[in-house]
């Protein structure tokens, strides 16, 4: 019965395998008793054991399965309790072999769980000491391990073979071992970092070996060597002809030439030239040319200074001047082909100043201008205009015809009108500069005119020639005859510098004597040295003091007394006169206070009289700049000085009263001046002063007698201002002027050939008598007219 009866049906829980294949196997009848260990049943039990819950759940189910077995023996339905609830199926016992495998698997799992729990405790204990980034890394690793553990749980291996399970178990074991090793190393490192044990300091590195020239890489040395270190290295080298020593001297020469060229200016060029000749320019001629061109490109404003330096060097080493000119011309051609305008402007400016210094021939400048103006564009014409501005003054002296041809080409370009308006204005400005004879654009500044034109070597090259820049002179080359060349240049340097180099070789005694003499001369120079104030601060303070003294005084006597107490340096008396005149001109109306003060100073010292005379001349020459009020005050001030004889009357010789030589302002000044004199002296005394025979030479410019037109203008001027009485003598002269002119034009009587002829004598006597009669009659008529005028007045 039991064998034929089918096993009871069971409900599937959430832990059972619900695949169709397992459901089919479960539904098929078992051919053997339930407790017999047949292979089919064993396989089914193994499959169910893989999906079984953990041991704790299985033990609980076994405890729950015991009452169900009792109920089943007590004739209760298997699989249901009294309440009719479903129970989980009872698990059949397995054989000893399978149970051992299961126990080993569970033991391994428990050991893995215990290891994981131990690691978690250690991580929790060290969590406070770890930084935040390491803690986050550990959390991410734990989360990744948990996901990996869930992914590799036994439930996912239910459908795999024993070989697959063994392989996965091995991989899991190797991965866990690697993780343990890595964490152990990290924990050991953390403990070592947290341990208070101090490590022994590492021994210092040995000093680097001394730097040798052959160890210096690169084009410019590649590393900075201090000057004292460089000097020490040069002293340590025993073989002075070795390439290493030559390289050291080459680097020192390059730095020295660059430094001297970079710091040269118009003030210190006379001091730089001897220092430059002290260097070996024959060896470093390529370095010198390269440094000059680079400095000129960096600062075109110092082009004239560099050209003057090159001119001085060219007098002693003409090949250096030619090499520099060749390189500048090649730079110009290269910039012209590349349309590089800034470089072209710099090159043309350098060539222009070399032409001014007569280092380059004027034909180079004319050829360059011809090339620039052959196919005119805006840029080429602008460059040509700038070039002519720089060297036009020199070309005007050396080749005026060539410069005229260049300006005719400029005129043709201007008439064509194909260039921009801005460039046309540049050409018009250039014509204006030429008309002004290049004022503001001198060829050579006075402080840069260092070389006599006879001592200069002029180089003539063409833009079409094949020129060699000799760029190999810019780099270092070992010289087998280095020592001999250095000695030869030392001799050449002595011949160039002359006594300066020989003085350096004198003994210590002579040097000490020279030092003592120099100290004595320096002391004498310091005693004789005076400090000059270029800011005129003292002059401004003096003027302020004079102004405040004049304006704060009650009367002229107090002002004069205070002003005489001011200590004036020799030559500062003029400042007092100027300030007195300025204060007078600033008043709204003329104050007699200023005239009396000026009179007092003229009476005290003749120096002030001469200064006021100079002020009169200056004020009359600039009278057109003054306003009417200032003009009136100045005229009344000088009239007071003339009326009181504080100022000599010969100052009136600076006034020329003609229509061409006077302006409206000057005529107003003369009018106010003579009206004030007539009010102060009276018309009679003024007329006597003007008719003084000793002063007639000073008054000829006021009462001109050179031409009837000027005479009439003077008479009409004084008549219009109410002073016609001072022109009586001038009117008489104007009346007699026709007869005097006829007498001057009458040719002199020639000597008579027959001295004894009576007819000639009679005629001459008759002529003389007739002339005397005519003169007497004319005098009588003039007297009658003057009497009638007096009666009318």
From TrEMBL:
InterPro entries: ARM-type_fold, CWC22_splicing_factor, Initiation_fac_eIF4g_MI, MIF4G-like_typ-3
GO molecular function, one term: RNA binding
Keywords for the protein's UniProt record, in alphabetical order: mRNA processing, mRNA splicing, Nucleus, Translation regulation
Acidic residues composition-biased segments: 501-528
All copies of domain MI, residue ranges: 541-657
Regions of compositional bias (Low complexity) in chain numbering: 752-771
Main location: nucleus
Top-level taxon of the source organism: Eukaryota
Pro residues compositional bias, start-end: 202-212
UniProt cross-references to PROSITE patterns, sorted A to Z: MI
One Gene Ontology cellular component: catalytic step 2 spliceosome
Biased segments, Basic residues type: 784-793
Stretch list, region Disordered: 1-216, 497-534, 741-793
Protein localization: Nucleus
SMART domains: MA3, MIF4G
Gene Ontology process terms (BP): mRNA splicing, via spliceosome; regulation of translation
Biased composition (Basic and acidic residues): 65-119, 132-146, 173-201
Family: Belongs to the CWC22 family.
Protein name as annotated: MI domain-containing protein
Organism: Miscanthus lutarioriparius
């Amino acid at each position: 019965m039991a064998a034929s009866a089918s096993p009871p049906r069971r409900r599937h829980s959430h832990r059972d395998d619900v695949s169709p294949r397992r459901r089919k196997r479960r539904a098929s009848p078992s051919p053997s008793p339930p407790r017999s260990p047949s292979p089919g049943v064993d396989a089914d039990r193994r499959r169910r054991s893989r999906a079984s819950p953990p041991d704790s759940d299985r033990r609980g189910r076994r405890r729950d399965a015991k009452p169900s077995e009792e109920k089943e023996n007590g004739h209760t339905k298997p699989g249901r309790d009294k309440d009719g609830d479903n129970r989980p199926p009872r698990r059949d016992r397995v054989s000893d072999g399978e149970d051992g495998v299961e126990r080993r698997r569970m033991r391994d799992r428990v050991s893995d769980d215990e290891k994981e729990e131990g690691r978690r405790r250690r991580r929790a204990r060290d969590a406070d000491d770890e930084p935040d980034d390491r803690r986050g890394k550990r959390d991410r690793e734990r989360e990744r391990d948990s996901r990996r553990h869930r992914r590799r749980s036994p439930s996912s291996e239910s459908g795999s073979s024993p070989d697959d399970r063994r392989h996965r178990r091995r991989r899991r074991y190797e991965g866990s071992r690697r993780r343990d090793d890595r964490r152990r190393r990290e924990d050991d490192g953390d403990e070592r970092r947290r341990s208070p044990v101090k490590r022994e300091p590492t021994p210092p590195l040995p000093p680097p070996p001394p730097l040798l020239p052959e160890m210096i890489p690169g084009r410019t040395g590649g590393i900075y060597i201090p000057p004292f270190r460089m000097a020490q290295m040069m002293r340590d080298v025993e073989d002075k002809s070795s390439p290493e020593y030559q390289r050291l001297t080459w680097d020192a020469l390059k730095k020295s030439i660059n430094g001297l060229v970079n710091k040269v200016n118009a003030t210190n060029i006379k001091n730089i030239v001897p220092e430059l000749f002290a260097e070996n320019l024959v060896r470093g001629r390529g370095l010198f040319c390269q440094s000059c061109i680079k400095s000129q490109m960096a600062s075109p404003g110092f082009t004239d200074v560099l050209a003057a330096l090159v001119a001085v060097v060219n007098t002693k080493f003409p090949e250096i001047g030619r090499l520099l000119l060749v390189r500048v011309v090649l730079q110009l051609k290269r910039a012209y082909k590349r349309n590089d305008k800034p470089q072209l402007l710099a090159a043309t400016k350098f060539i222009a100043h070399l032409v001014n210094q007569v280092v380059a021939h004027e034909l180079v400048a004319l050829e360059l201008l011809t090339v620039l103006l052959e196919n005119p564009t805006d840029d080429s014409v602008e460059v040509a205009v700038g070039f002519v501005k720089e060297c036009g003054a020199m070309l005007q002296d050396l080749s005026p015809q060539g410069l005229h041809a260049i300006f005719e080409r400029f005129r043709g370009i201007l008439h064509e009108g194909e260039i921009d308006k801005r460039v046309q204005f540049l050409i018009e400005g250039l014509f204006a500069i030429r008309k002004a004879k290049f004022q503001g654009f001198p060829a050579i500044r006075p402080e840069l005119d260092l070389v006599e034109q006879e001592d200069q070597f002029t180089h003539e090259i063409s833009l079409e020639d094949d020129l060699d820049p000799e760029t190999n002179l810019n780099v270092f080359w070992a010289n087998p005859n280095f020592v001999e060349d250095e000695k030869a240049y030392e001799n050449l340097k002595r011949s160039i510098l002359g006594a300066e180099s020989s003085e350096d070789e004198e003994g210590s005694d002579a040097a000490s004597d020279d030092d003592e003499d120099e100290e004595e001369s320096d002391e004498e120079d310091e005693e004789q040295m005076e400090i000059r104030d270029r800011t005129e601060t003292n002059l401004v303070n003096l003027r302020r003091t004079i102004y405040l003294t004049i304006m704060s005084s009650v009367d002229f006597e107090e002002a004069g007394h205070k002003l005489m107490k001011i200590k004036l340096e020799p030559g500062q008396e003029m400042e007092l006169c100027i300030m007195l005149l300025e204060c007078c001109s600033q008043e709204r109306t003329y104050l007699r206070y200023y005239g009396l003060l000026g009179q007092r100073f003229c009476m005290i010292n003749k120096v002030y009289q001469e200064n006021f005379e100079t002020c009169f001349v200056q004020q009359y020459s600039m009278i057109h700049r003054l306003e009417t009020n200032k003009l009136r005050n100045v005229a009344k001030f000088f009239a007071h000085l003339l009326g009181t004889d504080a100022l000599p009357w010969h100052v009136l010789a600076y006034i020329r009263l003609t229509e061409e030589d006077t302006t409206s302002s000057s005529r107003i000044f003369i009018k106010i001046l003579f009206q004030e004199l007539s009010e102060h002296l009276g018309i009679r005394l003024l007329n006597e002063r003007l008719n003084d025979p000793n002063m007639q030479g000073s008054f000829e410019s006021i009462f001109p007698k050179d031409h009837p037109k000027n005479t009439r203008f003077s008479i009409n001027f004084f008549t219009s201002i109410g002073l016609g009485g001072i022109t009586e003598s001038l009117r008489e002269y104007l009346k007699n002027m026709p007869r005097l002119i006829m007498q001057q034009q009458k040719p002199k009587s020639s000597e008579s050939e027959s001295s004894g002829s009576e007819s000639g004598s009679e005629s001459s006597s008759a002529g003389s008598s007739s002339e005397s009669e005519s003169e007497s009659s004319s005098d009588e008529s003039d007297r009658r007219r003057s009497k009638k005028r007096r009666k009318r007045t």
